[in-house]
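Form P-L/3: holo structure prediction, ligand guanine.
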Amino acid sequence: MSAALIDGKQIAEQINTENAAEVARLKRDRGLTPGLAVILVGDNPASAAYVASKDKMCARLGMHSEKIALPSATAQAGLLAMIDRLNQQENIHGILVQSPTPKQISEEAVFAAIAPSKDVDGFHPLNVGKVALGDPSGFVPCTPAGVQELLARSGVAVEGAHVVVLGRSRIVGRPVSLILSQKARNANATVTVAHSRSKGLAEICRSADILIAAIGVARFVKPEMVREGAVVIDVGINRVEDPTAPKGYRLVGDVDFDAVKEKAGLLTPVPGGVGPMTIAMLMRNTIRAATMRCGLA
Ligand code: GUN
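OUTPUT (holo model):
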């Protein structure tokens, strides 16, 4: 049997329609235009593409955006000074520094320098703490929030389910495990966090009702790691060489899609699964940051 696919692009489109309506309402009723600053340090082509798509989405939704490209040799102090200026800037409600940054820059220092009220990535220690505590006043990181929303809008019951999260990163694995285990709507799951050092990884993954692959290795999840009929959410975006592809490479996920689709019940494709959801949730977080700044939320 072949898995049904979750159309992340279509679900993200619904959310962006809601986002655009909210932006229009804020402009009309409050004279408020949500603004996002996206900083890219260096010239990693994948990061440049993500930053461009965030900027484009702001324009589409009628939001203000500033795309700031800094050279790869930028010193940490220079980047922190830039963040400080944006922290003070009235028309900017959200600030994002694209990860990964060049090695002379500590991401910990960068994320901690962003004002928590403008931290639409949810990477500041205060927001990480709020997510860990289940305090809804914080910002939830965009990809984990997107995964939760994708499951909810696809009618997948998370409550009581065994969710196995493969990966423990700051950006995806750790926060998605926290939000899905919370005592809250679209959560209340039994969550296992597994990773590259886990013993008996295949068996752990096979025990999942919902398997979330965020390990950062192309086609890592094989059919023997998936229970028949399980829901599989592929968070990975990996470039693999393919001389027959127009750009010489192809994007694949952390799941061996062609093989796993014969075993899973429901599966997200790459591209067109989680990716578009991340941007939709970033826009939602930025709109929320703007409304909070103006005392409206
Ligand atoms: N790199 C990959 N995903 C993300 C993200 O969600 N935010 C930032 N800032 N960088 C990323």
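COMMENT: The pocket of guanine is lined by residues 96-99, 121, 142-143, 171, 278 (CB under 6 Å).
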